[in-house]
Known about the structure:
This protein is an alpha/beta fold. The protein has eight helices and seven strands; from the N terminus they run αβαβαββαβααβααβ.
Amino acid sequence: xxxxxxxxxxxxxxxxxxxxxxxxxxxxxxxxxxxxxxxxxxxxxxxxxxxxxxxxxxxxxxxxxxxxxxxxxxxxxxxxxxxxxxxxxxxxxxxxxxxxxxxxxxxxxxxxxxxxxxxxxxxxxxxxxxxxxxxxxxxxxxxxxxxxxxxxxxxxxxxxxxxxxxxxxxxxxxxxxxxxxxxxxxxxxxxxxxxxxxxxxxxxxxxxxxxxxxxxxxxxxxxxxxxxxxxxxxxxxxxxxxxxxx
Length: 246
């Protein structure tokens, strides 16, 4: 990740999706306090900037070490199921490709913990791998415990303190390639987008087109799922607490 995160087409597309979403949902995000929960090697955290205000956490000491190599001192070793922060500490939480991991022993508990540290009406951005049949050797290598369907993510969020502002599959246009690579074992590592050079550039253009589609619509299937959820205010009427937006 540390070697390829800033140039690989899939990571670049994921980061563009996250920051385009921040711009759309929270235009003043640069003045808000943001937690990167499961920050990995720190590429997203570095791009967030504002080291005095924003914070990253990860359970892996190696991840913290790579963050340090990026010059990031605003990182802490912590479990997202037991975050070392007070209630209502952050305006936004980003949890990108974390909840699927074998180290997350209680996914619902982790979502409740992310909700706890968010301020009322704060935003949660999550990215997750989709569809169990896509589980491959690459999933084993990156310690994937589970892949998700849209209805599971919807229930997970609605049952643990959130309303949904956006929920969509993505990496849709490259989905056939992923199926071939993962289920027909056309890739020794089970990777769908292990691309360099021309292929990386081509996949990047395809993903750019898909991100343009995502501006106005949700996609019906894909390799991953992306959600934006809002923490419920505790004083909201019960009738509004199951509300789902686009």
